[in-house]
Amino acid sequence: MSKPQSSTAQRRRFLRSAAAGAVGTAAMAAPMVSNAQTVSLRFQSTWPAKDIFHEYAQDFAKSVNDMAGGRLKIDVLPAGAVVPAFQLLEGVAKGTLDGGHGVVAYHYGKNSALALWGSGPGYGMDPNMLLAWHKYGGGKDLLEEIYKSINVDVVSYLYGPMPTQPYGWFKKPVAKVEDMKGMKFRTVGLAVDMYTEQGAAVNPLPGADIVPALDRGLIDGAEFNNATSDRVLGFPDVSKVCMLQSFHQSTEQFEILFNKAKYNGLSAELKKIIDHAVEAASADMSWKAIHRNSLDYIELKKAGVQFYKTPDAILRNQLDVWDKVAAKKSGENALFKKVLDSQRAFAQRAGQWQNDYLVDFKMAWNHYFRR
Predict the structure, then answer these.
(1) What's the rounded Cα separation, in Å, for the pair 266 and 263?
(2) Domains of the chain, start order
(3) Does pTM top 0.90 for this prediction?
(4) How far apart are CA 277 and CA 334, in angstroms?
(5) What residues have CB less than 8 Å from 337, skipping those under 6 apart?
(6) Rounded CA separation 332/112 (Å)
(7) Which of 36, 72, 34, 80 is nearest to 54 (CA)?
(8) Which helix (H) or strand (E) holds 177?
(9) Looking at CB atoms within 10 Å, which of 208, 268, 269, 300 has the fewest?
(10) 226-280: per-residue pLDDT in tens?
């Protein structure tokens, strides 16, 4: 008959067993180290490397790369590195690029309805409200329908509400609509039609080509986007007059494109990371724009740029001109009308709510800084 074990020995045996079990459990719970190779995606923006817009593209890529933890890596090249800026959509659709960063208005030549994501007054919506329409009011489905109609196989994300863009940079202040008659001017999208209706001779140049064209006298005036971009692109070196406020592009946002086959090859988890990275980058971009644009607005003034508010008569004329352009395009393109009808319905509802609920922030700003 064996001798009974002491309580001390029993305790030691139990502790050794428990420790071994804990090690086994920990090993089972420890994350498996993946041997899968990193998926690398080659992106191109439609912006010069020095522009803050290219920085926004890099910010998005960094957000994805950080969250993916080495499983997905997006590299972003500047405009023209692989394809010309205005050929980004084709480059991504054909697989020449895995993805890209630009604006929907640059695809205007494929279908005029594409410019409605940015060009025109948007029935009084601001850029963030237009993004709300895109995500929740039917815009995303309409954009996919348009891309399908032109046989473009891409996955599109819209993000990043842009501040209202200036009417333009000029040799002298624009006091009335007649001042635009015969002026050689740069813009893009449906803004081409708006400025043309106002009498300008429009040339839709990519961003990097604008300042050299102004410098050589190939154009008399131009608009691009914002204080930071305009400053780094060199506008104050060739013009000292900027007219602020306009309806030609008052609702614009950025577009992130993926080649559809490449995107479909990603895991569900990586796709979800991209979803959340887009929204995070959208918020951060809007905050960074406020910070950087306001600083560069001061620097432009220091450089001798004179800023003028675009006269209300010109703004009202823009709305009248837009109505003519919209009616003409709607008659030519059923998808154009379909997008406009959807935007109008959303804007009427959401705009009523916003206009009734939001206080006049300018009143408070004037109270503190212009007394």
Answers:
(1) 6
(2) 39-162+251-292 (3.40.190.170)
(3) no
(4) 34
(5) 330, 331
(6) 10
(7) 80
(8) none
(9) 268
(10) 999 999 999 999 999 999 999 999 999 999 999 999 999 999 999 999 999 999 9
